[in-house]
Design goal:
Structural class: alpha+beta
Shape: globular
Number of helices: 12
Bound molecules: zinc ion
Length: 309
């Protein structure tokens, strides 16, 4: 039996990269191709930035875990009991090794606890979402099966049991959180999710032309088309971009610790001084650098606050 999903589409990955790379042009309506569900979170500047922040957290954690939501060779067996689309329908899910079916014994002890994907919050929130949001299932007259999800903002799911470390219960942004997981889930299910990468030079997300080959050593890590050409000639420029990005992050770490009191002095100078305690020798910056990059620093601080609240 062939299961038709509405999102078997490379465009999902392209849209995801676009979303992760920068704020969305407002007034544009975003749809996941072929899904037919509008994204309520993407209406309005504040809301869409919160949504983007959540999606960034999900995708970076997924990449940190080696582009997986669960440890190597584990899988969750999910079965539906009851009539689909009815209140009595329930999902049952068990985490087990993929060898489970063959051997007949539960291999959970064999899950490698050093695997970053074993300890992560990622699969817990992923399965919590799946538990709360039942897919819509249609059995068609020709015997084919359709699966689809309704936007959580429209179906008002119950509150999550599992939350990632950056969201507190009672956050006013639960709809954005739920929709960001739905986007993430459809992205994973696009069959092309593995093509998404982040450039080590400019930090931008991009879509690979083809899957990285197994066993090939990408010495310098993934780099986007733009940086590939200049990788050898203008590597310094890329290093500069990356260095700037790291400095902005460092500045954002201490930005909120400054207080408008006399012994703190000017904010730019105080932040520069704090940053210099962490920067390698010979790379010290001045208050002037902080002033020049104030906008970027504040944007980073705001992004983090959104993700937290
Ligand atoms: Zn790049």
């Amino acid at each position: 039996m062939k299961i038709l999903t509405f999102n078997d589409n490379l465009e999902v990955v392209e849209n995801t990269a676009r979303l992760l790379n920068g704020p969305l042009p407002l007034s544009q309506h975003y749809w996941l191709p072929l899904l037919g569900v509008g994204w309520t979170s993407l209406r309005g500047e504040e809301s869409s930035e919160v949504f983007r922040g959540f999606l960034l957290e999900l995708v970076s954690e997924w990449m940190r875990c080696g582009k997986r939501v669960m440890p190597e060779e584990t899988t969750v067996y999910a079965s539906g009991v009851g009539l689909p689309n009815s209140d009595r329908f329930a999902w049952h899910a068990h985490l087990a090794s993929e060898k489970f079916l063959k051997s007949g014994k539960i291999m959970s002890q064999e899950i490698d606890q050093n695997d970053p994907a074993a300890q992560t919050w990622l699969w817990r929130v992923y399965w919590d979402w799946n538990h709360r949001n039942k897919p819509n299932v249609w059995f068609r007259h020709d015997g084919q099966l359709y699966l689809n999800y309704t936007s959580p903002a429209q179906s008002r799911p119950s509150t999550p049991d599992m939350l990632p470390p950056f969201i507190e219960s009672g956050s006013p942004y639960m709809n954005q959180w739920d929709e960001s997981i739905l986007w993430f889930l459809l992205f994973l299910n696009s069959r092309h999710a593995q093509l998404l990468d982040r450039c080590v030079h400019c930090d931008r997300y991009f879509v690979r032309k083809r899957r990285p080959q197994r066993g090939v050593d990408y010495k310098r890590g993934p780099n986007c088309g733009k940086c590939k050409g200049r990788a050898s000639i203008q590597r310094t420029q890329c290093t500069r971009d990356r260095r700037k990005h790291q400095r902005v992050k460092l500045a954002a770490d201490v930005w909120g610790q400054w207080k408008p009191m006399r012994h703190y002095g000017r904010r730019a100078n105080w932040v520069a001084e704090k940053m210099n305690q962490k920067l390698p020798e010979g790379q010290a910056i001045t208050g002037r650098w902080v002033t020049q990059h104030q906008q970027e620093i504040e944007a980073e601080v705001q992004r983090r606050n959104h993700a937290k609240s």
